[in-house]
Amino acid sequence: MIILIILLFASLVILHEWGHFIAAKRNGVEVEEFGIGFPPKVWGRKVRGTLYSINLLPLGGFVRLKGEDSSDRGPGTFGGASFWVKTKILLAGVVMNLLTAVLILYALCVAGLPALGSGFEPRFLPSTYAQPKQLILAEVEAKSPAAKAGIKRGDYVLLADGKRLETDVDLRDFTKAHAGKEVTLHIRSNGDERDVRLKLRDPNTKEGYLGVVSQQVYKLRYDPLRAVVAAGYIAGGLFVATVVGVVQLIIHIPTLLLSVFSHNVPQAAQAASGPLGIFFIMKSISSLGFAYVFLFMANIAVALAAFNVLPLPALDGGRWAVLAVQRVTKRQISADIEARIHAVGFMALIGLMILISIYDLRKFF
């Protein structure tokens, strides 16, 4: 699972860098190195002036442009390129991630798109349900009433005392209303259906009455033409939601810092996930099938695009913001000062990632 997550995430980062690579090549800026992974270098070969390398740390990739981090403004350098050429190069990675997300979403819209929630679904487009709304168990707590009754992760809970369940709220309300009582759940497991009789935990328990984490699942299908519109609409919705989420996260950094030594998870950290959070989410949804894994991959691709477009130091958007300020003010910032700005920004982003990872541990343990 860890290897799969690393490969999926790394492939999206490599595609992002490939966008920079293609844009640079097409606009006459020399690419000194295109690396898969991060140094130390394992293998490298120079072709037409570009070193293609494979490196030891499989966490993505990088592109090194001529004159990118220096004051060199000669022919073929990034520094010597026009403002619009630099803009195209810097934003090409964002565009590549968005295109990747749209292509994945398009394939899912045709084959069967897992539920994203009504806020992201293009209700103006007619669709057919490829799969009815059902409730699946993403996690089953050890020694819980569910586990003792033989219910496992990946099982579907169809009925509770004869009442149909479609959402996690339905199940939560039912178990709360019947806490401490015996109930009958109709379960589908590996294609077979059966009734399971069990006793829920008492009302005063601090744990879940049933001891499960449930999730509503269903799939939508669109014809190939409408799927183009649906994929673009969903990608746009995810992009806006990610930008809003990141901005809210940055605004609430003081709250996150003040709460780091408590046992609480602030609201700002609930929806955010770092590398640990991504691992646990991927582990949870992997039992639902490849469609859910690819949907999560599309979501990460959009998140990478949205995050990188923000005008924050060390990110593509931040580097473009520096260029825009220089163009408007007609004053050049020295390469050394710009490098320091991005270095400080990079360290701040690493710190934020560590902070979110601390809250990921609280959420999942």
Explain this structure.
The chain is of the alpha+beta class and 365 residues long. It has a domain at 128-219: PDZ domain (Pdz3 Domain). Helix content is 50%, strand content 22%. It has 11 helices and 9 strands. It has helices at 2-26, 83-111, 145-148, 168-177, 224-251, 253-258, 267-270, 275-285, 290-309, 316-329, 335-364, and strands at residues 31-47, 50-65, 113-114, 128-140, 156-160, 163-164, 182-189, 192-199, 212-221. The protein has a 4-stranded antiparallel sheet with strand order 6-5-7-8. Strands 3-9-4 form a 3-stranded antiparallel sheet. A hairpin with a 2-residue loop joins strand 5 and strand 6. Helix 2 packs antiparallel against helix 10 (316-329), helix 5 (224-251) packs across helix 9 and helix 8 (275-285) crosses helix 11. It is elongated, with a radius of gyration of 24 Å. The mean pLDDT is 90.
Structural class label: alpha+beta
Can you name the CATH architecture of the domain at 128-219?
A: Roll
Radius of gyration from CA coordinates? 24 Å
Low-confidence segments: none
Find the CATH topology of the domain at 128-219.
Pdz3 Domain
- The oligomeric state of the chains shown is single chain
Helix content: 40-55%
Q: Report the portion of residues in β strands.
A: 15-25%
Average pLDDT number: 90
Structure annotation, total helices: 11
What is the name of the CATH class of the domain at 128-219? Mainly Beta
Order of helices and strands: HEEHEEHEEHEEEHHHHHHH
User: How many strands?
Assistant: 9
Largest beta sheet: strand ordering: 6-5-7-8
Question: What is the straight-line distance between the termini?
Answer: 18 Å
Largest sheet: 4 strands, antiparallel
Shape: elongated
According to CATH, the homologous superfamily of the domain at 128-219 is PDZ domain
